[in-house]
Design brief:
By secondary structure, the chain is of the alpha+beta class. 37% of the residues lie in helices and 35% in strands.
Length: 302
C-alpha cells in the first residue's frame, strides 16, 4: 500500500517479497540525513549529508523534472540543427562546380630604359672632376651616336668618395690618396632594340680609358591594362567551356555563375615555364614577353 499525495517518491522493497512502499523523497532525505548524523558522521565535528541524501533532496524540489526535460529537448534541437546545416552545406557543394580558366597573350615591350655609371679618379678633387667630365661626355656621345636624341638623356648629380692611404700594416689612415667621382647617365626610349644595344656595347668605352659600368636595361609594356582586360575575358570563356565539359560528362548542365575570382596575373619572359598561382610576376629583363592570367569560377549545376 502507498499513500503519495505529491512530490517525488522513493520505492523501497522489503526482503524477497514483491512488495514495495513508496516514501516521499523529502522524508527519504531526512531519514538519510538522520542516519548519517547517528553513524556516518566520520571524524568531522558536525553531521555531513551523504551524496545520496543530497541527490534525493534536490530531486524533491519542485520543477526539477521540468528542468531536466527542457535541457534534454534543448540539446536535441541543437544537435538536429547542426546536422541540418551540414546537410544543406553538402547540398550546396554538390550543386556547384568550380573550374579554373587560363588565357595567354604574347606581348612586345614598347619602352626601354637604361642607366650607366662613369667614374674618374685623381689625387686632387679638381683633377678628378675634369677627368669625370671627359668620361661623361664620351658616354653621352656614344649614346647619341646610337640614335638617342640629346633631350632623352638624363644626367644625375656627381657623387664623391675618397680612397684613404694605408700604413705599413695595411690599415687606413686619415690621409686622402685620391678622390673618386662618379656620375650616372640614363635614357628612356621607345626604341627598345637601341636601348638593348647601348646596354650591351657601352662598356667598349673602357678601351678608350673610360671607366664605365653598364646597368641592366628595363623593358616594359605600356598597354598592360588593355591586355589584362582581354585576357580576363578569354580566361572566363575558357573556364565556362571547362565547366560545360565536366557537366556534360555527369549528365548535367551549367547554370548561373555563383562566384568569380581572379588569380595571378603574370608577365613572363617569352617561353618561360613559370606557372605560379600564388603571386604575380613581371619580367622586365626581356623585350618579348607572354602575359598570363588565371581565374576561378563557381557555377551552379542544373
Amino acid at each position: 500500500m502507498s499513500d503519495v499525495r505529491g512530490g517525488t517518491s522513493v520505492e523501497i522493497k522489503h526482503g524477497m517479497k514483491d512488495e514495495a512502499t513508496h516514501v516521499p523523497a523529502s522524508e527519504f532525505a531526512r531519514a538519510a540525513e538522520s542516519h548519517g548524523a547517528r553513524g556516518g558522521g566520520g571524524r568531522g565535528r558536525g553531521p555531513r549529508r551523504s551524496t545520496l541524501s543530497r541527490i534525493a533532496a534536490w530531486m524533491g524540489r519542485p520543477g526539477v523534472g521540468l528542468f531536466l526535460l527542457g535541457a534534454a529537448l534543448a540539446f536535441g534541437v541543437l544537435g538536429a540543427s547542426d546536422r541540418l546545416g551540414a546537410a544543406l552545406r553538402g547540398m550546396r557543394q554538390v550543386n556547384q562546380i568550380s573550374v579554373k580558366g587560363v588565357a595567354e597573350m604574347d606581348l612586345t615591350s614598347d619602352r626601354g630604359s637604361w642607366w650607366g655609371v662613369v667614374r674618374a679618379r685623381a689625387a686632387t678633387l679638381p683633377e678628378a672632376y675634369a677627368n669625370l667630365e671627359k668620361s661623361a661626355e664620351s658616354l653621352r656621345a656614344f649614346v647619341i651616336g646610337r640614335g638617342i636624341p640629346a633631350d632623352a638623356i638624363t644626367v644625375a648629380s656627381v657623387s664623391i668618395s675618397r680612397e684613404m692611404k694605408l700604413d705599413e700594416k695595411g690599415n687606413a689612415t686619415n690621409d686622402v690618396e685620391r678622390f673618386v667621382l662618379s656620375q650616372s647617365i640614363g635614357i628612356t626610349s621607345t626604341e627598345v632594340q637601341v636601348v638593348r644595344a647601348i646596354a650591351n656595347d657601352s662598356t667598349a668605352l673602357i678601351k678608350q680609358g673610360v671607366e664605365v659600368e653598364s646597368g641592366s636595361p628595363v623593358f616594359k609594356v605600356s598597354t598592360i591594362e588593355e591586355a589584362k582586360l582581354r585576357l580576363l575575358e578569354q580566361a572566363t570563356a575558357n573556364a565556362l567551356e571547362r565547366a560545360k565539359t565536366l557537366a556534360r560528362g555527369s549528365g548535367n548542365s551549367v547554370g548561373k555563375l555563383a562566384n568569380a575570382s581572379q588569380g595571378t596575373f603574370q608577365i613572363l619572359a617569352r617561353g618561360s615555364t613559370s606557372s605560379s598561382e600564388w603571386g604575380g610576376e613581371y619580367d622586365t629583363s626581356t623585350i618579348d614577353k607572354t602575359a598570363r592570367v588565371v581565374v576561378t569560377l563557381d557555377y551552379n549545376v542544373d
